[in-house]
Automatic annotation (TrEMBL):
EC number(s) recorded for this UniProt protein: 4.1.1.96
Organism name: Desulfovibrio piger
Protein name: Carboxynorspermidine/carboxyspermidine decarboxylase
UniProt KW Lyase keyword: yes
Record SUPFAM superfamilies: Alanine racemase C-terminal domain-like, PLP-binding barrel
Chain residues that bind substrate: E256, D292
Keywords: Decarboxylase, Lyase, Pyridoxal phosphate, Spermidine biosynthesis
Domain Orn/DAP/Arg decarboxylase 2 C-terminal: 115-356
Entries under CDD domains matching the protein: PLPDE_III_CANSDC
Any GO BP: nor-spermidine biosynthetic process
Length: 409
């Protein structure tokens, strides 16, 4: 069983609610593990993309039956979540660290990556002293910028002109500073192995001498490994090539690939108002609950009841009735997109936005005091004669007033 969406009855779910598909999470994890088994690479979960920790036992080698070696964090709090709830290796990188953050990070991390030589020179002695006193090793690395862009959207392109991320080729000495064990780079965003292959050409051309000194090399994130049609063979060749050339342990840290197409956002139509076109007001919000719709921007997939089944809504004008879907916040631009349906929507209709496990869940806000969507999961026994008969929705968490109040003062 690849996914459980056909087994989800949106009428049985609180609204709004993120629903995780445990079968799809497990299927994604199996694909990632096949890469590890074929190459010896270690794959980490990027918590910036997916941090729903109730599901970590499905993914973690240390805390469950999953294949992933650990997590990568972009902050102290992500590192702590990775250590406490996922286990395994904890890798951390940020554009800049503070002394206070270092004090909290050092007991949590196994790999610590610095964005500049200045940050390493400032904090390297502190890290070495802590390791000496604690008797525990932390492997330190540097993020490099190969000045090679693969990203199409500037806001998500780590190597765009003027990027603050990573050390440029002319800034890094041929001999790595003492205490540096590896290099980290990140050029991709929702891309295939062909983009990685081009990146590796640029990285080797500009940092080959330094790579030869590494115990580990981290390929960063943005690898859409679990997307249909992704070239797994090419990815494995890329990993093997770098292992062969430099004898280093290879790491990848995808976020999206772990939970791609593994969750939905269930919402309810509150009203339909007539503007220049019909506008359906939902109990969810692009601004608060799926901000990438506005930031990326993109139009999420949508399922709606039609002839007793869930069917994909059409583009503007594709089906009989077209409307604009909008959120309930006071932001004038809180608009999700235009969709067409077989029949007009009515108050009370349930809708399902697709591929909502990644980024949307970690980026939610309480702007306007709107409550965060509930979180639940759907699981079934794949070995049962009738998996549909075993499918169960489990409510993991509801949010309320205290979640809004306690983030302020």
């Amino acid at each position: 069983m690849k996914h459980l969406l056909p087994l989800l009855d949106p009428r049985t779910v609180p609204s709004p609610c993120f629903v995780l598909d445990e079968a799809r999470l497990a299927a994604n994890a199996a694909i990632l593990d096949s890469v590890q088994q074929r190459t010896g690479a270690r794959i980490l979960l990027a918590l910036k993309g997916f941090a729903a920790w109730d599901s970590f036992p499905l993914l973690s080698r240390a805390k469950g039956h999953g294949p992933l070696w650990g997590t990568c964090a972009s902050s102290v709090d992500e590192a702590r979540l990775g250590r406490e709830e996922f286990g395994g290796e904890v890798h951390a990188f940020a554009a800049g660290w503070t002394e206070e953050e270092l004090d909290e990070l050092l007991p949590l991390v196994d790999h610590l990556v610095f964005n500049s030589l200045a940050q390493w020179e400032r904090f390297g002695p502190r890290v070495r002293a802590w390791c000496r006193d604690s008797g525990r090793e932390i492997s330190c690395g540097l993020r490099i910028n190969p000045e090679h862009s693969e990203g199409a959207v500037a806001i998500y392109n780590p190597c765009s002109p003027g990027s603050r991320l990573g050390i440029r080729p002319h800034q890094l000495p041929e001999k790595l500073p003492e205490g540096i064990s590896g290099l980290h780079f990140h050029t991709l965003c929702e891309q295939g192995a062909d983009a990685l292959e081009r990146t590796l050409d640029a990285v080797e051309a500009r940092f080959g001498k330094q790579l030869a000194q590494c115990r580990w090399i981290n390929f960063g994130g943005g690898h859409h490994i679990t997307r249909e049609g992704y070239d797994l063979d090419r990815l494995c060749r890329c990993i093997t090539r770098m292992q062969r050339n430099y004898g280093a342990q290879i790491y990848l840290e995808p976020g999206e690939a772990v939970a791609l197409n593994a969750g939905w956002l269930v919402a309810t139509v509150l009203d339909v108002v007539q503007a220049d076109m019909p506008v359906a007001i939902l109990d969810t919000s692009a601004s608060c609950h799926m901000p990438d719709v506005l930031e990326m921007p993109y139009r999420p997939g949508l399922l709606a009841p039609e002839d007793g089944e869930l069917r994909l809504a059409g583009e503007n004008g594709k089906k009989a009735w077209t409307c604009r879907l909008a959120g309930k916040s006071c932001l004038a631009g809180d608009v999700i997109g235009e969709y067409s349906f077989a029949a007009p929507l009515r108050a009370g209709d349930r809708l399902i936005f697709t591929d909502m496990a990644i980024y949307s869940m970690v980026k939610t806000t309480t702007f306007n005091g709107l409550r965060l969507p509930s979180i639940g999961s759907l699981a079934a026994d794949p070995h049962a004669a009738d998996p549909a008969a075993t499918a169960r929705f489990r409510l993991v968490r509801r949010f309320g007033y205290e979640d809004f109040k306690t983030r302020l003062s």
